[in-house]
Amino acid sequence: MKHILLLSLFLVRAASAAEPVMSATECQVWERERSFAQSVANHDKQAFAEHVYEDAVFSAATDHTQRGRDTIVAKWNDIIEGKKVNLEWRPQYVSIAADSNVAMSRGPYVFSGKDDKGVTKYAIGDFVSVWVRKDAASPWQVALDGGGPPPKEATEEEARQHLAQAPAACLRSP
């Protein structure tokens, strides 16, 4: 009986460890990342731009770095419009730095689009974004984005499962 009780306690802890529990500030960043993704889903260029820090760097730590909000918005235009490719992403983890105005978010993303024959193709990966704000009253804006490995081809089911890794809502710590 004692072994069963210990096993059940272990399973409860293991299950709860799989879902990230975040502070209220981390949840602010998590929500901001979700609204950033929603700006792309809504094809809203203005809302997208409002999430990007003025001197942001996207595709950071690569050979095709994009610098500055205007350049980033221009380079992302096709993605924002969703004409050639669709991009969906969800935050899974958020951590606040010692300076509580800097945070990092990470989670799964999926690209989808039709090939020349009209067949929908999928590619999956994980994003990493660094968020900043001037002070506690300022909105969080993404300052650095990218640096992860390139996406890999996936089936539709694999793409769904990949996105499902991220929680549907931010789980706040008690």
What report would you give on this structure?
The chain is 36% helix and 32% strand. The protein has six helices and ten strands. It has helices at 2-18, 24-41, 45-51, 69-75, 77-81, 156-164, and strands at residues 21-22, 52-58, 66-67, 86-89, 93-96, 102-114, 120-132, 141-145, 152-154, 171-172. A hairpin with a 5-residue loop joins strand 5 (93-96) and strand 6. Mean pLDDT is 89; it is low at 1-17.
> What proportion of the residues form beta strands (DSSP E)?
25-35%
Model regions low in confidence, pLDDT < 50 over at least 5 residues: 1-17
Major β-sheet annotation = 8 strands, mixed
Q: Indicate the mean pLDDT.
A: 89
- The count of helical stretches stands at 6
What global shape is seen? globular
- Structural category: alpha+beta
Q: Care to count the β-strands? A: 10
How far the N terminus sits from the C terminus, by CA atoms, comes to 31 Å
Element pattern in H and E? HEHHEEHHEEEEEEHE
State the helicity in percent bands: 25-40%
List the topology elements.
Elements: H1 2-18, E1 21-22, H2 24-41, H3 45-51, E2 52-58, E3 66-67, H4 69-75, H5 77-81, E4 86-89, E5 93-96, E6 102-114, E7 120-132, E8 141-145, E9 152-154, H6 156-164, E10 171-172
Parallel strand pairs: 1-10, 2-8
Antiparallel strand pairs: 2-3, 4-6, 5-6, 6-7, 7-8, 7-9
Please sum up the structure shown:
The chain is 36% helix and 32% strand.
Summary tags:
174 residues; eight-stranded mixed β-sheet; disordered N terminus
